[in-house]
Amino acid sequence: MAVSIKDVAQRAGVSVATVSRVFGNGPVSPELRERVEKAIAATGYRPNLSARRLRSQHSQTIGLMVADIRSPFFTALSRVVEDEAYRSGLRVILCNTDESAEREAMYLRLMEEERVTGLIWSPTRGSLERLADEDPPFPVVLVDRGGPVGRHDSVVLDNQQATATLVRHLHTIGRGRIVGLFGNTSSTAVDRHLGYLTATAALGLSSEAFFVPPNAEAAEREIVKVFSRPDRPDGVIASSSAILLGVVKAMRRLGLRTPDDVAIAGFDNETWSELVGPGLTVIEQPVGDIGRMAMTLLFDRLRAPKAPARKVMLSGRLIVRGSTAPVTGLVDEPVD
Amino acid sequence: MAVSIKDVAQRAGVSVATVSRVFGNGPVSPELRERVEKAIAATGYRPNLSARRLRSQHSQTIGLMVADIRSPFFTALSRVVEDEAYRSGLRVILCNTDESAEREAMYLRLMEEERVTGLIWSPTRGSLERLADEDPPFPVVLVDRGGPVGRHDSVVLDNQQATATLVRHLHTIGRGRIVGLFGNTSSTAVDRHLGYLTATAALGLSSEAFFVPPNAEAAEREIVKVFSRPDRPDGVIASSSAILLGVVKAMRRLGLRTPDDVAIAGFDNETWSELVGPGLTVIEQPVGDIGRMAMTLLFDRLRAPKAPARKVMLSGRLIVRGSTAPVTGLVDEPVD
DNA sequence: GAAACCACTGAAAAGGATTACATGAGGCTT
DNA sequence: AAGCCTCATGTAATCCTTTTCAGTGGTTTC
C-alpha cells in the first residue's frame, strides 16, 4: 500500500487537515509546515490525484479532440494546448477521431466520465450540426472548424478570406483556369470552397471544385484524373497540406512542371514546405495564436458560463514561393 | 450536482451494488439488469472515473513522455500508443519534455500522483543514466532511446546497423568522404555515431562527426561551416529528419547540387521525403511496430513484475532515392 | 428431509483526499 | 475584566464508487 496523507500526518504529529493545508496553501504555522514537509520528504508521499479530484469535484483536466494528431496542424495545436494547460495545472486528454462520428460520440462519453472542465474540439461536419441540438455537460470550444453560427465559442482561420487570397494571387501571376481541391469531411473545406467560389466569380474566372478524402493518395488520384483531360487547368489550390502533397505527387507522375505548366498553392506552412519542388506557396496559419486563443476562450467561459458565445477569426499569412512564381515572358502584369 | 449511482439505484429500485455490478459484469439477473439500464438511460448517468479509480486502486492510465510531440517520429509513436491504449481501456497522459531533465523530473512526479500503471518514455541521456540508480514506483518501458544495458524494458531501432547501412550505401555509390551529423541530446545519436564510426573504419574511410542541437537551423549552420572549407566532403549522413532538412537547406544555400556534388541520407521516412529535392534516401523506422512492441512489453511487465528486463531491437529499412543516386560516368561499380 | 450448494442481492466498509465546523489560545477593544 | 476577533488547528463529514460479507430463496445431493 502506498503512503497516504494519514501516514504523513502521523509522522509529523499533526492532523491530516494540516497536511492537506500545506498543499493547498492554507494557514499553517511555519513550524508545523516544516515538520510536515520533512515528513513528506521522508515518506516520499505523493498526493493521490483521484482522491483529490473526487473530493474537490474538480478534475483539473480538459479534453482535446481532433481528427488525427499526425496531421501537422493538429500536431502543432496539441503542443500549444498542452503547454498552456500544464502551465495552468491542467491535464489534457487527447483523442483521435479519424473523422468518425461514432468515435466522437464514444470520446464525448469518456469526457463526461472524466468530468473534464472543458473540451477543445475540431468536430466533423455531422457532429457540428448535432451540436446545435444538445449540449455536453461541459463547455466546448470549437477550433479550426467553427461552423456557421455559434452556441459555442470557436476560433478559426478566416478561411474564406485566406482562400480568396490564394485565388487572387494565382490570378496575379496570370492563371485563369484554377481548380480547387478540398477535403470532404471538415467544415473548414466548406468555408475554403466558398472563398474559392466567391473569389473566382469576382475575378470573372471559371471555377471547378473537387472534394476528396483528406489524404495525399486520394488527392493524387483525383488530380491525375482531372489533368488527363484535353484542356488542362493552369492552377491548383489545395485545402490542406496533405492534399497539397498529393497534388505535387500527381504533377511528378504526370511529368508536368511547376510552376511553368501548373502553379500550385495550398494551406499550412511546414518545415519542409520550402524544400518540396520549387518551394510551395501556402497560407500559413497562426496555429500558436489559435491554440492560445482557444484556451483563453475556455477559461473565460468557465468564469462566465452564461456570457454570449464568441467566434474569433484569425487571418492567415500568404507565403509566396516557387510553386507560384510568374512564368517569364508570359505575364506582363506587375506582381504585388 | 450530477447524477450519481445512488440516483440510478433509487430509480431502478435496487441497491447501488447492483448498479455497480451492471457495469462490472457482475452477476445480475436479466430483469434487474434491464431495469438498471433503463434507469441509466433515463437519468443520463455517467460513472465518475475518479471515484472508480480511487476505490479500485487502478488508474487505467499510462504515461507517454517524449521530447516533443512535433517531431515526426514521436507524433507517429504517440498515435500508435494512444490507439493501443484506448483499445485496452487505458488513458494516456502525454508529456513533452523538450529534452529538459528538470521537466522530466516534474512529469515523473506527476505520473506518480496520477498513479499511472506504467510509463513509455524516451528519456534524455542524463535521465537514462540516473534511471540506473532509482526506480519510479511503476514499470517503465524505454522507447527509441534504450541505453546500454537494461534494468528496464526497452525497444529501439538497431541504430548501429542502420547507420552502417547508410555508410555502406554511400560507399557503394562512390562516396569516400562522408561526414556524420548527429543530435547532441539523445542516446540514439550516440548509437548512430558508433555505427558510423564502425562502418567507415571497416571500409577504410575517413570519418568526421559533428554533434548539434537536434533542429534544422543548427544543422544548417554547422553544414554551411563544414562545406565552406577547401576540400568538401562528398557525402552526409544525418541522424534525424530535422537535421536532414537542415542539411538540404544548407546545400541550397551553398548552391551545391544533390547528389552530384554531395550525396545525402538520413533517418525517418516522412510523407514529404520523396518530394524534397530529388527525393531523400532514408532509413525508415518501423514506428508502428516500435509502439506496439512497447505496449506489449509494458503489459507483459505488469503481468510479471519480476521477470528479467528485455531489450528489443528492430531493424530499419533503407529507402533509396535521388539524393544518393550514383553520378553517371564517375562510378563504375554496380549498384546493389 | 437435512445438508450443501448456487445464483442473486443488499448493507456497509473502504479508498484518500478536501473542507465545514468546532475549539482553543492570544490579542484588542471598551 | 469581559467580550470579541483572528488565527491556527483538529474532528468528522463528504465526495462516489467498488468490494466484502452476509444473507435469501431455491435447487440439488445424499
UniProtKB/TrEMBL annotation, chains A, B:
It comes from Pleomorphomonas carboxyditropha. Keywords: DNA-binding, Transcription, Transcription regulation. The keyword DNA-binding applies. This is LacI family transcriptional regulator. SMART domains: HTH_LACI. The lineage of its organism: Bacteria, Pseudomonadati, Pseudomonadota, Alphaproteobacteria, Hyphomicrobiales. It comes from the Bacteria. GO terms for molecular function: DNA-binding transcription factor activity; transcription cis-regulatory region binding. Residues 3-56 form the HTH lacI-type domain. The keyword rRNA-binding does not apply. PANTHER family: LACI-RELATED TRANSCRIPTIONAL REPRESSOR, RIBOSE OPERON REPRESSOR.
